Amino acid sequence: MGSKKNKAKKVVVASPSPSSSHGNTADDVYDLVDDLLTELDSRDQAVRPEPAPVLDEVQAKRAAQAAAPDKAGGKSRFKARQARKAAALAEQQGPVNTEADAKLEREAKDEERAINKICNDLGLEIHEINPDGHCLFRAVADQLSILNIVPQQQAHYVLTRQAAAEFMLTHPQDFVPFLPSVEGEDGTGIGDSGVIGPQEYARYCASIRNTSVWGGEPEILALSRAYNVPIHVVQGGQPPVVVHDPSGAPSTQNVKEQRAVRISYHRRMYGLGEHYNSLRPRTGLQRLTSPLKHLLVPS
Asked: Could you tell me which residues come within 8 angstroms of residue 131 by beta carbon, excluding any fewer than 6 positions away?
């Protein structure tokens, strides 16, 4: 008995259909593939030990249909079949909640307007940061370069991740009380209050340094203190501007005179979730255009 491969090959290279006297065309190939896949789909994609009977049956159907004119070419039929499969897959995703989607869209637009208003008042513009998990660290690195705190060639998320992780690791008393344990209150080494334990905290800092885990408030505070620079976060909610001061004291300086890292925080504008962008000055001569002292709150 010949191999399965030889059997399949024998059928495929069989004599051309009566409808064509010049050999197999591209449309013939698409037709054969389309009919074969349709036949296999109808049999629930079952893996058959002998594919030759299936191919023989498909060829027989092709021969029976040869006399009838094909209004759509094989390529068109193949694409139509793919479209039907895509439609069936879309049906399986469940109904679309148009009301919820509309609400999210409204919230995203409101957030965008609010952030743009603050940026206009401050003479800033949003510099888009890649939403890849490193967005906070990329945004801060971009700002540190603008402020000449780090050289431009070193302004990379790897540098800021390392700075945040090292500061947190060497100053656990500033962060541990605010980090709940992901292992729960019964986890190994967890205190009575359920906060993160020493071993888990070390792993947390390592993940900040070495992975693309998302950064938030603790990491912003760590970066502010590591580089000894205030970090202002513009957002669509209240308060519009949150100030993280390296000294931990409330900021009393005029925003226009303050040398600070400025980033934006987006909850709704990006479909992937929470995101940070860098806020660059619109001109090199004027970083800020109006004070927002009444909007500032200490972190």
From this structure: 270, 272, 275
Helix, strand, or coil (residue 187): coil
Q: Which structure tokens are listed for 55?
A: 């191919």
- Comparing C-alpha atoms, which of 186, 188, 216 is closest to residue 200? 188
Q: Is 246 exposed, middle or buried (0-12, 13-18, 19+ CB in 10 A)?
A: middle
pLDDT tens digits, residue range 156-198?
A: 999 999 999 999 999 999 999 989 887 755 455 545 467 899 9
Tokens standing for residue 246: 């390296």
Taking only Cα atoms into account, the Rg of the chain, rounded to an integer number of angstroms, comes to 31
CATH class belonging to 108-298: alpha beta
Question: 3-class SS at 296?
Answer: strand
- Quote the CA–CA distance of 111 and 258 in Å, as a whole number: 25
Residue-range domain boundaries for the chain:
4-91, 108-298
* Each residue's pLDDT tens digit, 93-151: 666 678 877 888 888 899 999 999 999 999 999 999 998 899 999 999 999 999 999 99
Cα angle for residues 175, 176, 179 (degrees, 5° grid): 90
Pairing between β-strand 231-235 and β-strand 124-127 as defined by DSSP bridges: unpaired
* pLDDT tens readout for residues 49-83: 445 555 566 566 666 655 555 555 666 766 676 67
C-alpha 86/C-alpha 100 separation (Å) is 24
Question: Virtual CA dihedral for 11, 12, 14, 16, nearest 10 degrees?
Answer: 140
